[in-house]
Amino acid sequence: MSKKHRHTISILVQNEFGVLARVSGLFSGRGFNIESLSVAETIDPTVSRITLTTTGDDAVLEQINKQLNKVVSVIKVVDFRDAEAVDRELALIKVKANPEARGEIMNIADIFRAKIVDVGPTAYIIEVTGGEEKVYAMVELLRPFGILEIARTGKAALFRGSRLLTVGPAEADREKRAKEHLS
Predict the structure, then answer these.
(1) pLDDT tens digits, the chain, 183 residues: what are they?
(2) In 68-122, where do the E strands start and end?
(3) What does each C-alpha distance from 71 to 25, 64, 75, 114, 168 come to in angstroms?
């Protein structure tokens, strides 16, 4: 049995209804859990970028990749696992902040270059951006104060250097043919 690895996958898709359901269905249909998911428009408003993380067997992930490339609305698929890339996520953490703990919580936020974005009578909301390890470490340091709620965005990832994940001429032509096919 082959070893399971963590994968961050970005998928450029046509920005239309139902695409996310088809993409996520390919993962669930093969027993893969999507651990984080981020979806937004790209520079081109007709194209969205889905970035997800999952853990699984390389051979099965290769099959999913092949299946994704067969979906008409999918333009391009990239697995960042072996690529030089930058990835970040954002987390909002609501933590109890009684008067005795406020200074220490503010120090923790400063150490992590996080921002306190809301101050209430009994709680702070802290915004932290960074790699998964940074977010996890901050959550663990805040846990003793009493975390009330967490919201995380999921990863966003880009290649380092000059490598891009964009719609080039070949992909734009494929997209145009797919739209003509649907007409």
Answers:
(1) 568 888 899 999 999 999 999 999 888 887 888 999 999 999 999 999 999 998 888 887 888 888 888 888 999 999 888 789 999 999 999 999 999 999 999 999 999 999 999 999 999 999 999 999 999 999 999 999 999 999 999 899 999 998 888 887 655 555 555 555 555
(2) 74-79, 85-96, 115-119
(3) 12, 11, 9, 40, 18
Exposure string of 47-58, with b = 16+ CB inside 10 Å and e = fewer, is: bbbbbbbbebbe
Compute CA distances 90 → 1, 22, 45, 126, 133, whole Å. 35, 26, 23, 10, 12
Q: Domain 86-152: what homologous superfamily?
A: ACT-like. Chain A, domain 2 (3.30.70.1150)
Residue pair 23/68 in contact (Cβ under 8 Å)? The answer is yes
CATH superfamily placement of domain 4-82: ACT domain (3.30.70.260)
